[in-house]
Amino acid sequence: MSDSAITTRQRLLDVATELFRSHSIAGTSLQMISDELGITKSAIYYHFRTREELLEAVLEPLIAKLRELVDEASTQRGARAQADAMLRGFVALAVANRTLIPVLTGDAAVGEVLRSRQDWAAIVARQMQLLAGAQSGMAGEVGAAIVMSGISSAVGLDYAGTDEQMLEHLISAGRRTLGLRGHDVK
Amino acid sequence: MSDSAITTRQRLLDVATELFRSHSIAGTSLQMISDELGITKSAIYYHFRTREELLEAVLEPLIAKLRELVDEASTQRGARAQADAMLRGFVALAVANRTLIPVLTGDAAVGEVLRSRQDWAAIVARQMQLLAGAQSGMAGEVGAAIVMSGISSAVGLDYAGTDEQMLEHLISAGRRTLGLRGHDVK
Question: Domains, chain B, ranges and CATH?
Answer without folding.
Answer: 1-49 (1.10.10.60), 59-184 (1.10.357)
